[in-house]
Write a structure and sequence with these properties.
Helix content is about 80%, strand content about 5%. A two-stranded antiparallel sheet has the order 1-2. It has one domain. The chain contains 3 helices and 2 strands. It is elongated and about 50 Å long.
């Protein structure tokens, strides 16, 4: 059973890292939307595409606007934090019990 515990431990840590990276990508994308960044810069394009994986479905699903302010990045970050706190911690706790 310790092999499954170690596997779940590795999956939990990788998932935690990926979710943390997506949170930072969404924050950077929101900051880039405030300044006049070059939209043809490859780094800006990559950040916008990666953040769009999570933010664009939220924009299609609901209208999270208050005037000119788009709250969908904040909703996406809150969802990711919930997943990080609930799903990742559950996987890590289960991996500890299986060791």
């Amino acid at each position: 059973m310790f092999i499954i515990g170690n596997l779940l431990n590795a999956v939990g840590y990788i998932l935690n890292t990926v979710i943390g990276a997506f949170i930072w990508i969404i924050i950077i994308s929101a900051l880039l939307s405030w300044v006049n960044a070059d939209p043809y810069n490859p780094i800006v394009m990559a950040i916008n595409r990666l953040s769009g994986i999570i933010v664009n479905p939220l924009r299609r699903w609901g209208k999270f606007y208050a005037g000119p302010i788009d709250f969908s990045p904040m909703i996406a970050i809150l969802i990711l934090i919930f997943l990080q706190r609930f799903l990742v911690r559950s996987i890590l706790d289960l991996s500890m019990r299986l060791r």
